[in-house]
Amino acid sequence: MELRIDIPDIESIPFIKMDEDKPILISNNSSGKTYRITNLKIPKEEGIYFLYDREYCLLYIGQSENLLSRISTHRGKDDFFYVKFFITNFTKRVRIAVEQLLIDKYKPKNQLFTTQNVRAYT
User: Fold this and answer.
1) Is residue 4 part of a domain?
2) Cα-atom radius of gyration of the chain, to the nearest Å?
3) Which of 84, 78, 116 lies closest to 100, judged by CA?
4) What is the CATH number of the domain that holds 40?
5) Of 108, 103, 102, which is closest to residue 8 (Cα–Cα)?
6) Which residues of 84-98 are buried (b: 16+ CB within 10 A; e: fewer)?
7) 1 is a domain residue
8) For residue 14, what is the DSSP state?
9) Contact status, residue 72 vs residue 4, Cβ threshold 8 Å
10) Exposed site from 1, 23, 44, 83, fewest CB < 10 Å?
11) Does residue 36 carry a pLDDT above 70?
12) 3 occurs within a structural domain
């Protein structure tokens, strides 16, 4: 039985700038439009996230049952400036598989895990 999963194109997901108190959506890099939305919060839902540096270079791709909690653990440790995410309703096993497909496709700069060393823990 084949499982089909729709994964959004990460280029279509807007960037969220991380500041001291709360994230602010500042631009959609693909369209060049700039937005300012205050009180935007990263949800406490499960999903897949992408961390970027100041030059919009992809640093890291991760998955979590709680995006807000997981992304906040990166603050102070990793030099990321922007974040993108999408909400999922996948099982943990499927989220990990999707995360690995995205890592293999986009090859983030600071990614520690590859498909080979993650397969052992799934």
Assistant:
1) no
2) 14
3) 116
4) 3.40.1440.10
5) 102
6) bbeebebeeeebbbb
7) no
8) P
9) no
10) 1
11) no
12) no
User: In a 10 Å sphere around its CB, with 0-12 CB exposed, 13-18 middle and 19+ buried, how is residue 121 labelled?
Assistant: exposed
Sheet architecture: strand order including 33-37: 33-37, 23-28, 15-18, 82-87, 47-52, 58-64
What pLDDT digit, counting tens, does each position of 69-112 carry? 888 777 666 677 888 999 999 899 999 999 999 999 999 988 76
Report in angstroms the alpha-carbon separations of 112 from 81, 109, 115: 19, 9, 10
Tokens standing for 36? 């300012």
5 found inside a domain: no
The alpha carbon of residue 31 and the mean position of all alpha carbons in its chain are separated, in whole angstroms, by 19
Q: Is the pTM of this model over 0.70?
A: yes
Domain encompassing residue 86 = 14-119
Residues 6+ apart with CB under 8 A from 121: none
Please, what is the Cα angle at 24 between 103 and 31, to 5 degrees? 65
